[in-house]
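= Tokenised fold =
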Amino acid sequence: MKTRDILIALAAAAAALVAAAVAETQPSQNPAKARVTSAVYDWSKIEAHPTSFGSHRSFFDGPTATLENFECHVTTLNPGESPHPAHRHPNEEFVVIREGTLEVTLNGKSQIAGPGSVLFFASNDLHGLRNVGTTSATYHVFSFVTAATPKSVE
């Protein structure tokens, strides 16, 4: 098993552990979104939606027993593409690169990251991604909102 496969498995396990903590007896903080429940989210059953920069797969997005919101999506970037300009938001994210080579910009500093790399974007840090490779780059994004998350960008 390759290091990248182990890191992807660890990220998936972390997501499964959070999802497993769901308590159906608590009312949702956000009634517009369904609770994220314990489940297997099968890659082959999650539809990839084409975008101007590649494609996007949405796995889940909603509250859990311990998080106001827990969201997971997978983005595939075509060579040379970025999903959007560098930005900031109050929620925290971690990203696991599945394949390809990304230029990661964090608070104005850039570095290159490849398969198996794990990125963490803290609340309100300016961050961006761009595929600098010659093949597609695919990465998993896990976004968290808790009671401690600021309500707006600082």
